[in-house]
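As a warm-up, study this chain.
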Amino acid sequence: MAKSNYNEDSIKSLDWKDHIRTRPGMYIGKLGDGSAFDDGIYVLIKEVMDNAIDEFMMGEGDRIDISLKDGVVGIRDYGRGIPLGKVVEVVSKINTGGKYDSEAFKKSIGLNGVGTKAVNALSKQFKVSSFRDGQVKSAEFSRGVLVKDHRLQSGIQEKNGTYVEFMPDDSIFKNFHFVLEYIDRMLWNYAFLNTGLKLYFNGQVYESKNGLKDLLEKNISGEILYPIVHLKGTDIELALTHSNEHFSEEYYSYVNGQYTTQGGTHLAAFREAIVKTVRDFFKKEFDPSDIRKSIIAAISVKVQEPVFESQTKTKLGSQEIAPGGQSMRSFVGEFIKEQLDNFLHKNPETAKAIEVKIQANERERKELSGIQKLARERAKKASLHNKKLRDCRVHLDDSKDARRLDTTLFICEGDSASGSITKTRDVNTQAVFSLKGKPLNCFGLGKKVVYENEEFNLLQAALNIEDSLEELRYNNIIIATDADVDGMHIRLLLLTFFLQFFPDLVKNNHVKILQTPLFRVRNKKETRYCYSDAERVTAIADLGPKPEITRFKGLGEISPDEFRNFIGKDIRLEPVLLDQKASIQELLSYYMGKNTPDRQEFIIQNLKMEKDTEAQLTVKAN
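Now compare it with the structure written out below.
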């Protein structure tokens, strides 16, 4: 075997922008096309927003303007503005920034000297302007390269602050598009965590007067058992209640304004402290799962020099609230012990509602215990010889593997479709679960059905979500069904299962729908796959006279060789987004209850009907 040369020429030293562009995942996590809430294009927005929020947290500027048009994002804060002599350096020189001065930014969230540089390097066009005391300094870049360094101007009638405008680089973010619901959610989070701040976007004002209490009220769907408990202290705030509609725990956790989707030391301390405080108050050794089941809570802490377990800051690793200071466990625990205990003594109605809920949870747990034991044994046995699950090698809970964010479980109808995906999938990160047929309609049924129904129990075991989402094995749960009446019905049945028993999967954007092409249009030189009538018409026009047109009627009809084009880097996913104002029970009642005519009408209106499509195809192809 020939040996490769390893010498001085093998050692590469990349400049700042080339390093970011070569290894973007180190700075912004996964890339994606914008269909997932944690795709890189939203991290770019967040990095610029974090700097603006840091200005507000320092008492500078109480307004931020955000714009989005034709893929170009603009963000204007009204803080102090970047020092005019350092504008170019701050956005283009690594290890340059104000965050290194801990007195200036004691509890900031923006990356130390990296955030805006990453945005700059990963943008096709990037512009920064700093306004200070009637002067403005601007600079323009393309993919991190300075293309225009504007001269300092004076006599400007603009309030102090910074304006950043950028368009993500489409050579890195392939076919990207912004989902407005994700931006809306991001901005609401900023508003909830920064009372007194106003954000303006698309003609809407985002503002909160009651912080985390407002956050829970906006996100809770359905009935709560008692008014939201809202407690605030120095560098800590929390809100909590229990719901009748949840079978699990639901948390929103934040550090210095950053939404830590994977929790961390602050959330672990919170979950532990809730159990201890409730036990001490009632003087009963309640089971922790009975106390926390159906809880909906939000916690926000401010930490000096926070340590996160990844560059994208989704999980807090700090053991202390400040270097050499009080432990996170002690800080959170003491606050909850004092404040929540006082609240329960002053509000006996809430205390009684909590006790009644815990007792109900305890009864249900004991009723389920026998069924759970049998179901777990069955699932454990099946996991070794389960022909319905083709697992992958990497999983989401493999925290040290960089590929974990790409882990995917395809849920397919039948062996035909799952066979095509299985033959072409990435065995490292893509798993396949094959349904036997139409799943059970579990609307209105209790958690007991998850254990009694073999298919649901195996799916729950495959996902590893029985107790919580903390050890979820796949980041993307993709429903892959045919685009016909039966396929739509299966989608609704699976969504009913997730919304009924594991709503956090949907709320945290783990559940998506696989988009597969409806048509293949080709001539001797080129093949186009079309996902809509509009794309088909364009393809026919582009490929010339009388191209060959194939209508795909089901996933099983697409050959494995072709399927490779649809589940790889160019995969098209439609996120399942839950309207924050909608009640889960009302949604399920409408679509999966007894109002069959309404549901049928919904399915019919949302299908690409084969008959109509083929008729159009015949007319336009001729």
